[in-house]
Design goal:
By secondary structure, this protein is an alpha+beta fold. The strands form eight sheets. The chain has a six-stranded antiparallel β-barrel with strand order 9-10-16-13-12-17. A hairpin with a 2-residue loop joins strand 20 and strand 21. The protein starts with a strand and ends with a strand. Helix 3 packs across helix 5. The radius of gyration is 33 Å and the shape is globular. It is built from 18 helices and 25 strands.
Length: 715
C-alpha cells in the first residue's frame, strides 16, 4: 500500500477517487507540531545554532495516531501538503512525528484534478530544505518578536488589553494609526472652480472646460474666496476664448493579469463585499473541490495548456477581434515571488463562469470573478481615443518671467471615447486604491480610468469659441480616505510587507484584539491601537516597526528559501537586535538567555489599605482596568476597597444586604488524575489513561487528554 498525506481532510475523498486501490489517502489536519503556546520561549540560541523545541499539538493527537497506523502498513509515503513554505514545513513535521523508518517522497500539485495529481506522482522529489528553513526562520522571528515585545508593550502602554505585538501585525496597525492621525489633523480648505460652457459656431457639439491655469501657474485652490471667484468670472466674460492647444491620441489598455492572493482579496472586497478572511475560506473550499488552482500565490504565471484552453473559449464565444494573434504573457510586479506557482485560475475554464456543482452563492460569485479575470487576461487590449483641448482666455494678457508672453488664463477640457472595449467587454479591474477606499465597485466593463466621457469637437489652434455660460462651484478639500481591508492589503502588498497568505489573519487580529474597529467597511484605529503604536515607534524605532525593515525581512526569507543564505545566523542577529532594543525599553528578563520566566511574586499586604470590609482580613494593592484598588488577600473573598478607603461596589451591596451571595471561599480546582501504569493505551491517540468513575458508579479507563480526546476502555 502507498500512503498519500494531505493537509485537509476535505481533499482525501476527491484525491482517493483519482488513485487506484493500491493507495490510501490520509490527512494531517494542518500542522501536527508547533512551538508550545505557553510556558517559555521554547527556542535555544547557542553556538551559532537555533533549536526550536517543537511539540505535538494536542488537537492533532488522534490524527497523528491514525497516520502512524497507516504508515506502518505503507511501502511508500507521499507527502502531498500544500505547495508553499508552510506546506513544505508541515510535510517535514509529519516525517518527524512518524519517524525516519519510512520512505518519504514529496509531491506537489497546484490543482486538485486527476491530471495534476497524476503528474505529481510521476515526478516526486525530496523535501526542500530551503523552504523548510525559510518557514522555520519566519516562525522563530515572529515568536521572538511577540514573546519579547509583548510583555514590554503591556508594561509600557500601561494597559492589560495591549496584549501583543507582531512583526507584520504591528506595521499594518501603524499604517491604520498614521492614517487616523492624518484625518484628525486634516484642515478642510474651501475653494471655487470655474466651468465654462463653450461652443464653436460651426463645429458641434458644445463642451465644458474648467479653468486650470492662471498667470502661467496651476490654479489649484487659489480661488479661496467667493468674491475673488466672482471678480474672475466678470473679467473672463469680457475676454476672447480661443483654442490654445489640441492633443489627440489613441491609448491601448492591456488586459490585467489573473488574480493572485492579494488582488483577489481586494477584488472580492470591492465587488462582493467579502472580508479577506471569508474570501480565503471560500478560496480554500474552491481549491479543495477542484474548481481553482492553488490560491496562496503571488505569481501571475499561467500554464501554457491553460492559456490555450482560455484562447479556445474566447474564439468560440467572442467575435474574432477579441482574440489576440499571440498568447498574452503577463509579468508580475514583484521581483521576489515567493513560490513558483501559477496564478489563481479555474481548472476547467471551458465550463463557463457558473459551475453547477457550486451551491454556495458567495462561492459562485467568487468563482465567477476568478473565471472572468482569467479569460479577460487572454483577450485583446482595449483602445480609447483621448483628446485634450486647452482654451486661452485673453491670449495676449500676461508676460511670464520664464515662458514669455502667455495667456492670462487657460481652461482645459478632456474627452475619452472607447474605440474598442476588448477585454473590458467581460470584466473590469476594480482593485485600485480609489475603488478599494470607497468600497464601491464600478460598472461592468469599466476599468480604472476607463469611464467614457462626452466626445470633444474637432478643433484647430486659433479657433475662436463662443462662451455660453460660466459657472462658479464651491468645493472643499477632503481628508485622505480611511483604509478598508482591501485598500490596506493593497498598501501592504505595494510596500512588500508580509505575504498575501497572511493578510487575512492580520486583518482579523487587528479587529479581534481591539486595535482597530470597522465601521461601514472603513478601519478606525482605536485609542488602544494609537497608544500601542506610539509606544512601539518611540521605543523600537529602526527595528521591526519600520516599513522597510519588514520588507527586508521578507526578502531575507526569500533568499533563505532559495538557499542563498544560512537561516540561523541571520535570524539570530535579527532576534538579538529585537531583544537589545526591548532591554532598553524595559524588558524585565531575557527570554533568549534560556532562563525560565520569573514567577509572579505573591501579593504582599498593604497596611494603608486597612482590613477587608467583609472578612476583616489583610488587603493588597492591585491594578485594574480603571486604575489601582485594594483587594482582599483571601482569594475566596470578594471584598475590595477604593483608593479613598470606601468599600467596593460588590462589598457595599453585601454589607447593605442587597446581594444575598455570601463571601464564600472558592471551591478548590479538581486535581488531574495521575496515569496508571496498568492502564491500556488510549485507542484513539495512543496516550496514557487513568481509571475513572461516572455518576452511576460505572468504572472505565479514560484518556488523560480528555476533553481533547474522548478515548475510553471498559475496566
Amino acid at each position: 500500500m502507498k500512503l498519500v498525506i494531505v493537509e485537509s481532510p476535505n481533499k482525501t475523498r476527491k484525491i482517493g477517487q483519482f488513485l487506484g486501490s493500491d493507495y490510501r489517502v490520509g490527512a494531517s489536519f494542518g500542522h501536527v507540531r508547533d512551538l508550545p503556546p505557553s510556558g517559555d520561549l521554547a527556542i535555544s540560541f547557542a553556538d551559532g545554532r537555533i533549536v526550536p523545541r517543537y511539540q505535538e499539538l494536542e488537537r492533532s493527537g488522534r490524527h497523528v495516531a491514525q497516520l502512524r497506523q497507516l504508515a506502518q502498513r505503507a511501502e511508500e509515503i507521499y507527502l502531498a501538503t500544500d505547495p508553499d513554505r508552510e506546506g513544505e514545513a508541515i510535510a517535514w513535521h509529519v516525517t518527524q512525528v512518524l519517524g525516519d523508518s519510512h520512505r518519504y517522497r514529496r509531491i506537489v500539485f497546484n490543482a486538485v484534478t486527476r491530471a495534476a495529481v497524476d503528474r505529481a506522482l510521476q515526478a516526486p522529489r525530496e523535501l526542500d530544505d530551503g523552504l523548510i528553513a525559510a518557514q522555520q526562520a519566519r516562525r522563530v522571528l515572529d515568536r521572538v518578536v511577540g514573546w519579547v515585545v509583548s510583555p514590554v508593550l503591556r508594561w509600557g502602554v500601561g494597559r492589560k488589553d495591549a496584549r501583543s505585538a507582531g512583526r507584520v501585525q504591528s506595521v499594518a496597525l501603524r499604517l491604520v494609526a498614521e492614517r487616523e492621525r492624518e484625518i484628525t489633523a486634516f484642515t478642510v480648505t474651501e475653494f471655487f472652480t470655474l466651468d465654462a460652457r463653450l461652443a464653436h459656431p460651426e463645429t458641434p457639439p458644445p463642451f465644458t472646460a474648467r479653468l486650470s491655469e492662471w498667470k502661467g501657474e496651476p490654479l489649484g485652490h487659489r480661488l479661496a474666496q467667493r468674491a475673488l471667484a466672482e471678480s474672475t468670472v466678470a473679467w473672463c466674460r469680457k475676454q476672447q476664448w480661443r483654442v490654445h492647444a489640441v492633443d489627440s491620441r489613441e491609448q491601448q489598455r492591456r488586459p490585467p493579469p489573473p488574480f493572485i492572493t492579494a488582488t483577489v482579496q481586494q477584488a472580492a472586497s470591492v465587488r462582493l463585499a467579502l472580508t479577506p478572511d471569508r474570501t480565503m475560506q471560500l478560496l480554500q473550499k474552491l481549491f479543495e473541490d477542484g474548481h481553482i488552482t492553488y490560491h496562496r500565490t503571488d505569481s501571475v504565471a499561467i500554464d501554457p495548456e491553460a492559456i490555450e484552453r482560455a484562447r479556445a473559449h474566447i474564439a468560440a464565444n467572442f467575435p474574432p477581434p477579441y482574440l489576440p494573434q499571440n498568447p498574452v504573457i503577463h509579468q508580475g510586479k514583484s521581483a521576489n515571488s515567493q513560490e513558483a506557482h501559477e496564478a489563481i485560475r479555474p481548472t476547467a475554464p471551458e465550463s463557463g463562469p457558473r459551475p453547477v456543482a457550486l451551491g454556495d452563492a458567495q462561492a459562485r460569485s467568487l468563482y465567477e470573478l476568478i473565471w472572468q479575470r482569467f479569460i479577460a487576461s487572454q483577450m485583446s487590449p482595449g483602445r480609447d481615443h483621448l483628446s485634450t483641448i486647452q482654451v486661452a482666455i485673453a491670449p495676449d494678457g500676461f508676460t511670464h518671467p520664464e515662458r514669455g508672453r502667455i495667456p492670462m488664463g487657460i481652461a482645459t477640457a478632456k474627452g475619452k471615447v472607447v474605440v474598442f472595449d476588448g477585454w473590458r467587454r467581460l470584466t473590469d479591474d476594480a482593485t485600485d486604491e480609489r475603488a478599494a477606499a470607497t468600497g464601491k465597485g464600478k460598472r461592468k466593463g469599466k476599468a480604472k480610468g476607463d469611464e467614457e466621457s462626452a466626445p470633444l469637437p474637432v478643433l484647430t489652434v486659433g479657433d475662436v469659441l463662443r462662451l455660453d455660460d460660466l459657472q462658479v462651484t464651491k468645493r472643499s478639500t477632503k481628508a485622505p480616505p480611511r483604509y478598508t481591508q482591501a485598500s490596506l492589503i493593497k498598501k501592504l502588498e505595494a510596500e512588500g510587507i508580509g505575504r498575501p497568505s497572511t493578510y487575512a489573519a492580520i486583518m482579523k487580529t487587528l479587529l479581534d484584539r481591539g486595535y482597530a474597529t470597522q465601521q461601514k467597511r472603513k478601519l478606525h484605529c482605536t485609542e488602544l491601537g494609537l497608544a500601542l503604536i506610539d509606544f512601539l515607534v518611540d521605543r523600537f524605532a529602526g527595528n521591526f516597526i519600520e516599513y522597510d525593515y519588514t520588507a527586508r525581512m521578507e526578502q531575507l526569507l526569500d533568499r533563505i528559501a532559495a538557499g542563498e543564505v544560512a537561516w540561523e545566523a541571520s535570524i539570530t542577529e535579527a532576534a538579538f537586535a529585537v531583544r537589545d532594543i526591548a532591554r532598553r525599553a524595559g524588558l524585565r528578563y531575557d527570554p533568549l538567555s534560556g532562563e525560565a520566566a520569573p514567577q509572579r511574586a505573591p501579593p504582599q499586604p498593604c497596611p494603608e489599605a486597612g482590613v477587608c470590609p467583609l472578612c476583616q482580613g489583610p488587603m493588597t494593592r492591585r491594578e485594574g482596568r480603571y486604575g489601582a484598588f485594594f483587594s482582599c488577600m483571601d482569594r475566596g473573598c470578594v471584598g475590595t476597597r477604593n483608593p479613598d478607603g470606601t468599600p467596593g461596589r460588590k462589598a457595599r451591596a453585601l454589607l447593605a444586604g442587597r446581594d444575598p451571595q455570601p463571601p464564600a471561599r472558592r471551591t478548590p480546582a479538581p486535581t488531574r488524575p495521575e496515569p496508571d501504569q496498568q492502564a491500556p493505551a488510549c485507542p484513539e491517540c495512543g496516550g496514557a489513561m487513568a481509571l475513572s468513575t461516572d455518576a452511576a458508579g460505572a468504572r472505565a479507563w479514560a484518556c488523560l487528554r480528555f476533553p481533547a480526546c474522548r478515548g475510553a476502555v471498559d475496566a
